[in-house]
Amino acid sequence: MDAHRLLIFRQIAHSGSIAGAARSLGWTQPAVSQHLRHLERQVGMALVLRRPRGIQLTEAGTVLLRHADAIATRLHAADDDLDALAQLREGTVRLAAFPSASAALVPAAMSLLAQRHPGMDVRLREAEPPEALDLLATGEVDLALTFTHAGEHPADHPGLVRVVLGEDPVRLVLPRSHPHAHAAPPDQPVNLRLLSEERWIGGCERCTANLLQTCQDAGFVPDIRHSTDDYVVTQALIARGLGIGLLPQLALDAFRNPGVTVRVAAKLRPRTVHLIHHREADHIPAVRSAVRALHDTVSPLPPGSS
To answer: Which keywords accompany this UniProt record (predicted)?
Structure first.
């Protein structure tokens, strides 16, 4: 059954005449009559009886009008819902983000979105970059916050847009009692080669690979005694003198153990933070607003501090 003709029939029924429906629709009477005839032919029954002063619904017309009214109500509701999405009075955005971004960046962006669009629902799922990309590919999230270390070249994914949000400096983290913790002005870089005999703490698989490459570039192989992808645990181990490590500034912004000192190290290159989404998501108002909030939150990324 043609929904368009059904709505024209509804207008005829509520106007009480074909002429009244034509005036409401801005059509000619013959055009309205033609649509009515097509609909009656489609249902196989007369829907109206033509009277000198208008029309009278048949029993079939009365039944069909109830359904036409229900359809019109649902269409108006759909218009209202779509308008609410377009005006960002409601809408859901699902975001996957790596742990330090989840702690240091995402809450601020979510708070900003809540201020701008109180009806929006933002849902966070913590995930390391490879998992976040998988979640994006399978449609389980709308946005993915990821990172790459210096020298890494992320693969291109057809249909995905990758935007660089900024750089996240990597810092040397030492126990407060360490000889190099206060041996020079805080802004003077520490030469990693001087730490070649230290015990080191590794992180996630990609972070440990970056640690190995960084130390190799400095001329030594680090003695990695512990491995954890939890930056709180890393700092706890360092604070107790059980090793030293490299941590990104975002992790240090999210949590700083009072028992550690943060130093700039020579030739430590930052990691790059990316925001990734499907190309067609550019046309979804809620996703666009979330992207804007993340840009506003991380532009620029917080400068490193000791």
So the answer is: DNA-binding, Transcription, Transcription regulation
Q: How far is CA 88 from each of CA 76, 140, 272, 275, 305, rounded to the nearest angstrom?
A: 18, 21, 30, 21, 37
In CATH terms, are 3-86 and 170-269 the same topology?
A: no
Amino acid present at 58: T
Residue 72: its pLDDT value, please? 83
Contacts of residue 282, Cβ cutoff 8 Å, sequence gap at least 6: 161, 288
Q: Which two tokens stand for residue 303?
A: 């400068």
**What pTM was estimated for this model as a whole?**
0.69
pLDDT tens, residue by residue, 253-302 = 999 999 999 999 998 999 999 999 988 887 788 888 899 999 998 864 54
CATH number of 3-86: 1.10.10.10
In sequence order, what DSSP letters do the residues of 154-221 get, joined into one string? PPP-TTEEEEEEEEE-EEEEEETTSTTTSSS-TTSPBPGGGGTTSEEEE-SHHHHHHHHHHHHHHTS-
Superfamily name and number for 170-269: Periplasmic binding protein-like II (3.40.190.10)
| Topology classification of domain 94-167+277-298 | D-Maltodextrin-Binding Protein; domain 2 (3.40.190)
